[in-house]
Amino acid sequence: MRADRRAATWVPAFERDWANALEDSRHTYSLTPLHDVVRSWQLRIAASPAVDAFTDSGRDDSGFVDLDDVLGARP
């Protein structure tokens, strides 16, 4: 993750997510929050080449709905 061109934004975001999950794990005595963070970041990293290819293609994505509008604001 640190070697990626997005490291300046991804690393602090991952560290924030990890710290929150670690705190949740301390309160719940469960490793599930930590596993969830690792899984979600693995998916983000795996999807990044497809996202790059889409944005580099110059396709117009202005006709789509913002994910926050569908799912609501995320914490």
Written overview of the protein:
- The protein has 75 residues and is an all-alpha fold.
- It has a domain at 1-48.
- The chain is 69% helix and 0% strand.
- The protein contains three helices and no strands.
- α1 packs antiparallel against α2 (32-56).
- The radius of gyration is 15 Å and the shape is globular.
- The protein starts with 6 loop residues before the first helix and ends with a helix.
- The relative contact order is 0.09.
- The model has no long low-confidence stretch (mean pLDDT 86).
Structure class: mainly alpha
Q: Tell me, briefly, the overall form.
A: globular
Number of strands: 0
Which residue ranges are poorly predicted, with pLDDT under 50 across at least 5 consecutive positions?
A: none
Mean pLDDT: 86
H-E order:
HHH
Assign a percent range to the helix content: 55-70%
What is the number of helices?
3
Query: In whole angstroms, how far apart are the ends?
Result: 22 Å
Sheet of most strands = none
Estimated radius of gyration: 15 Å
What fraction strand? under 5%
